[in-house]
From TrEMBL:
SUPFAM superfamilies: ATPase domain of HSP90 chaperone/DNA topoisomerase II/histidine kinase. InterPro entries: HATPase_C_sf (IPR036890), NatK-like_C (IPR032834). It comes from Paenibacillus cucumis. This is GHKL domain-containing protein. Residues 327-426 form the Sensor histidine kinase NatK-like C-terminal domain. The chain crosses the membrane at residues 6-24, 59-76, 88-111, 123-149, 161-181, 187-206. Pfam families: HATPase_c_5. The lineage of its organism: Bacteria, Bacillati, Bacillota, Bacilli, Bacillales. Keywords: Membrane, Transmembrane, Transmembrane helix.
Length: 432
C-alpha cells in the first residue's frame, strides 16, 4: 500500500472511530461507559483500518463491519440486546448515507460509480470523498436519533428487539438492491432518503412503544407500593386502637384500686396493681417512644425479626413525641427501610450475623433514621433479591421522593458484609 492510499485510510479510520464513539454516547449514554475502554478502541481501530484498506467480498465486508462496530458497543455497561440493536442500526445508517454519497458524486461527475469501476488514484479519491460526505451526513443524523431515542432502564420483551432488527436488516437489503438494479434518477435519491427516514422513524416508534409499556408497568408497581404503604398505615391505626383499649381497661382497674384504698384494703390494692402492671407490660407495645408510627413499625419489625432469628437493637431517642413529618410519609420511609433491612438479614446464612441496628433520633427541627444491617453479599446494584424486586425498587424511589419533598436526603454506605442506610428529614413547618 503506497503513502497516497495509506494517509486517507488512517484519517478516515480516526474519523470513523470518533463518530462511532459519538453515536454510542448518544444512544447508550456517556454514564454507561466502562472505566477502561482502551482495548475496545484499539480493536476497533485495527479492524476498521483493515476494513477500509482491503477489498473483501460483500458478505465478509459486512460481517467485519458489524464486528468492529459491536466491539465499540461492548465498552458500555448495557444489556447485550441493546448493543446488538444499535450496532445493526449504526451499520444500516452508515450504509444508507454512503449510498446517498455515491449518488451525489455520480450526479456531480456524470458517472454511475455503482456500475462503472474506478481504479488507481481516482478510486482512492472517490473512496475518501464518499466516506467524508457519509460521515458528515451521519453527524447530522446522530443528534436526531439521540433526541428521539432517550434510553430508559425499562425492559422490553425480546420480540420487540427482534422485530426492530429484522426491519433494519430488510432496510439495508432494500437499499443495496435499489443501488444495483434501479435507474439513477431523482426517484432513486428519494428512495434512499426514504430509507434513511424510515430507520429514524423506526427508532421513534420503538421508543414510544417502550415509553407506553414503561408507564403502564410503573403505574401497576406504584399501585402495589400504595397498597404496601396502606398496610403500614393500618399498623399505625391498629396501634391507636390498641392503646385506646388499654387506656379503657386501665381506667376500670383504677376504679377498683381506688375503692380498695377507700376501704383501707391496701394489700388487695397492691396485689391488683401488680397484676395490672404485668398485664399492661405484656399487652403494650415493646417499643414505647411516644410516637405511634415509630412504635408500630419498629415493634412489627421486632416481631418479624424474632420469628426469623434476627437480633434487632433499637436506639430511639426523640426530642418530642410529635414529629413534623406527615404520618403517611413517615410510614413510607421507615416502613421501606425496615423492610429492606429484614429482607437482607434473612439472606445471611450465619445466624450470629443476622443483626440489625435501628437508630432513630430527632431534634427540634429534623428526624434522623439510621438502619444498619449485615448482608450476605455486597449490595452492588441496590436491588431486592425478592421475586418482587421491582416493587421494592419503587420503595427506594419513594424514599428519595419523600426526602426531596422535605428537603432532606438519603445516604447509603456499603461495607464488607454490611449495609448502612441513613435518612435525614427536616420538619415540615406546616406540620409542626
Amino acid at each position: 500500500m503506497n503513502i497516497l492510499h495509506l494517509v486517507p485510510v488512517i484519517l478516515l479510520t480516526l474519523l470513523m472511530t470518533f463518530q462511532a464513539n459519538y453515536y454510542f454516547d448518544a444512544v447508550l449514554g456517556k454514564s454507561r461507559r466502562k472505566p477502561r475502554r482502551t482495548i475496545y478502541f484499539v480493536v476497533f481501530v485495527l479492524l476498521n483500518f483493515f476494513y477500509l484498506a482491503t477489498r473483501l467480498p460483500s458478505f465478509l465486508s459486512t460481517l467485519l463491519a458489524l464486528i468492529f462496530i459491536f466491539t465499540l458497543a461492548q465498552s458500555y455497561r448495557v444489556e447485550l440486546k441493546l448493543k446488538i440493536m444499535f450496532t445493526v442500526m449504526y451499520a444500516a445508517l452508515l450504509t444508507t448515507v454512503n449510498i446517498i454519497s455515491v449518488y451525489v458524486f455520480s450526479v456531480i461527475d456524470g458517472i454511475d460509480y455503482l456500475k462503472v469501476p474506478v481504479y488507481g488514484p481516482e478510486a482512492i479519491w472517490l473512496f475518501s470523498k464518499v466516506l467524508l460526505l457519509g460521515c458528515s451526513i451521519m453527524f447530522v443524523v446522530i443528534p436526531i436519533v439521540h433526541l428521539i431515542a432517550k434510553r430508559r432502564s425499562f425492559r422490553v420483551h425480546h420480540r420487540s428487539y427482534l422485530l426492530f432488527l429484522i426491519v433494519t436488516a430488510i432496510t439495508v437489503y432494500q437499499i443495496n438492491v435499489i443501488s444495483i438494479y434501479s435507474e439513477k434518477n431523482i426517484f432513486y435519491i428519494f428512495s434512499v432518503l426514504g430509507s434513511l427516514f424510515l430507520n429514524v422513524f423506526i427508532v421513534y416508534v420503538f421508543d414510544n412503544i417502550v415509553e407506553k409499556a414503561h408507564l403502564a408497568h410503573e403505574n401497576e408497581q406504584l399501585q402495589r407500593q400504595m397498597d404496601y404503604q396502606d398496610a403500614n398505615y393500618e399498623k399505625t391505626v391498629h396501634s391507636f386502637k390498641s392503646i385506646k383499649s388499654i387506656i379503657h381497661d386501665i381506667n376500670q382497674q383504677f376504679l377498683y384500686i381506688e375503692e380498695c384504698v377507700k376501704r383501707n384494703e391496701l394489700a388487695a390494692a397492691t396485689e391488683h396493681m401488680h397484676v395490672t402492671m404485668n398485664t399492661i407490660e405484656h399487652a403494650y407495645q415493646r417499643v414505647n417512644s411516644g410516637n405511634l408510627v415509630i412504635d408500630a413499625l419498629v415493634t412489627n419489625t421486632l416481631t418479624v425479626g424474632q420469628a426469623n432469628g434476627i437480633r434487632i437493637d433499637t436506639r430511639i431517642n426523640l426530642h418530642s413525641q410529635h414529629i413534623g413529618i406527615e404520618r403517611y410519609d413517615l410510614c413510607v420511609v421507615l416502613g421501606n427501610i425496615l423492610d429492606n433491612a429484614v429482607e437482607a438479614s434473612k439472606k445471611v446464612r450465619v445466624a450470629e450475623d443476622r443483626y440489625i441496628v435501628v437508630s432513630i433520633h430527632s431534634t427540634a427541627s429534623a428526624l434522623v433514621i439510621q438502619i444498619m444491617n449485615h448482608t450476605a453479599q455486597p449490595a452492588t446494584d441496590l436491588k431486592s433479591d425478592k421475586t418482587d424486586s421491582e416493587f421494592h425498587g419503587f420503595g427506594l424511589t419513594n424514599i428519595s421522593r419523600i426526602c426531596s419533598k422535605y428537603g432532606g436526603h438519603m445516604t447509603i454506605e456499603q461495607g464488607q458484609g454490611s449495609f448502612n442506610n441513613m435518612v435525614v428529614l427536616p420538619y415540615n413547618t406546616n406540620n409542626v
